[in-house]
Amino acid sequence: MKKLNRKVAYMLMTILLMVNCTMMGTVAAAKAVNGDSRSRPVSVAGGSGHGVAAWDDGSVTAWGYNKSGQIGDGTSIHQLVPKQVAGLTDIIQVAAGNHTSFALDKNGDVWAWGEYYSPYVSGDPLLPFQKRGGLTKLEGLKDVASLAISTHGSVALHKDGTATIWNETFDPNDPTKMTVKYFPIKGVTNAQNIVVAGHEALILGRDGSVGMITVYNSFYDRYRLESEFREVKPLVASSITGIASYWYDVFLLDKNGTVLQWNVNTKQKAPVAVKGLKDIKEIKTGYNRLFMLKKDGTVWQWNYNNPAAKPFQVKGLTGITALWGSKGHTGYAINKDGQLLAWGEEQYQGSGSLNEHDGKPVLVQPPLSWTVNGQEISFYSSSAIVKGKLYVPYTSVFKALGIKVKRGQSNPDPKHGNQGFPVWSFSYGGNTVSIKSSDPAVVLVNGKVTREDSSIPFLANTSMFPLELITSKLGIPMSWNKTTGEVILGTIP
């Protein structure tokens, strides 16, 4: 009997294991089908012309205007397609100033790059005038729970509900020497969020209250020392679930879905309700604009600096689950499929190509990885995506592929007022593809004119060349996975 019971128990256990494995396999297959294995953004921020995003695998990508090194790739070269920021892991939040970027990791440590944090590096043989420093760890910030970046001062909210404000200071005898100074904000306790507007810090408490404290000493033209802070003044007693600010304007999200507005630089005694706004779930700000996520998954925008402007729905944004703002004209959102979208009137939105200032949402592209003849390569310059096609500068993959690039000049063209145009030639394996950069461009293969529709756009301060066209005409294999960003060129050993 005992042997029989053991045999039955063994059979039951085997069946359960088989069912469990089958279920796990089914779930894994479902994830693969639904694309759930793809990384999703957990935090996004924008400066005056760049974007930065943290993903659920702990990595960080950045894109856009890069004159101050805010992309974090060690250069001052603008990037149309996002690049992964090396040296960052386990990141849970990103933030941005006008020309700076910040990242917070799960341990509560903070990293900064761009502008003052990434100074110029002279003497680099590849980038003699465009090399920038790397990441800077803000050693004065520990156990940080969230970041709020402002033109008037940046604030770190600690895990225990206290807060620290910091700013960059410079040696009067040597302006290139930058020091970060930290000022604990006395009187801030039990805070869940904090923003800076003008000389004031607005503190959202965990009980839904909002208080205000002056953080800047206008008499001495510096931030207040810890001994100079006064008591936190109450602004709203309760019911607030969200807070956002830009410059002197502060916006408060009430739990009933309405929005309150207050300007710290006026004699306005209390926040007032914004007419026409209801069912709001989340609020963020940009340059004189308020971005709002409604409970129905739609996104609305209010350019509040214009007295005649009214809130409007952003077309093309539905099924949205999270929202982020910037220091410029760009907003960011993630949809139910985990895709990151950007919209606004700025050029660099991570779509791979300069937008047309039309405000329409665009998909933020994944970073590109490059494999040439089985070897991974990287290059400083930006790549581009024009009309769904991949473009690269000549200082990119051509040398690694063995393609010889040459620049010449065409004969005077009577169709264009006897004007001559630059002609770029790409030679490989006895074949040559030439592109005359007229309008429209003329493509020649081994000296014969073709009917190919192409161009040589000037993007990110350089000429861009149609990679797919060139490699196909030269007989070089190429594949581009638009979901993962993996580009494979040439043969695989």
Characterization of the model:
It is a single chain. This protein is mainly β and 493 residues long. The protein has two domains: 41-363, 7 Propeller (Methylamine Dehydrogenase, Chain H), CATH 2.130.10.30; 369-489, no CATH class. Helices cover 9% and strands 41% of the residues. The strands form twelve sheets. The chain has a five-stranded antiparallel sheet with strand order 35-36-37-38-39, with helices on one face. It is elongated, with a radius of gyration of 27 Å. The termini are far apart. Residues 1-35 have low confidence and may be disordered.
Enumerate the spans where pLDDT stays under 50 for 5 or more consecutive residues. Answer: 1-35
CATH architecture of the largest domain: 7 Propeller
**How far apart, in Å, are the first and last alpha carbons?**
62 Å
Shape: elongated
Strand content: 35-45%
Helical content band: under 10%
Number of contiguous helices: 3
Could you state the CATH homologous superfamily of the largest domain? Regulator of chromosome condensation 1/beta-lactamase-inhibitor protein II
Total number of β-strand segments? 44
In what order do the strands lie side by side in the largest sheet?
Answer: 35-36-37-38-39
> For this structure, what is the CATH class of the largest domain?
Mainly Beta
Q: What structural category do the secondary elements indicate?
A: mainly beta
The major pleated sheet works out as: 5 strands, antiparallel
CATH fold-level name of the largest domain:
Methylamine Dehydrogenase, Chain H
Rg, Å, rounded: 27 Å
Averaged pLDDT: 89
Number of domains: 2
Domain Copper amine oxidase-like N-terminal: 371-488
Keywords: Signal
InterPro entries: Cu_amine_oxidase-like_N, Mao_N_sf, Ran_GTPase-activating, RCC1/BLIP-II, Reg_chr_condens
Signal peptide: 1-32
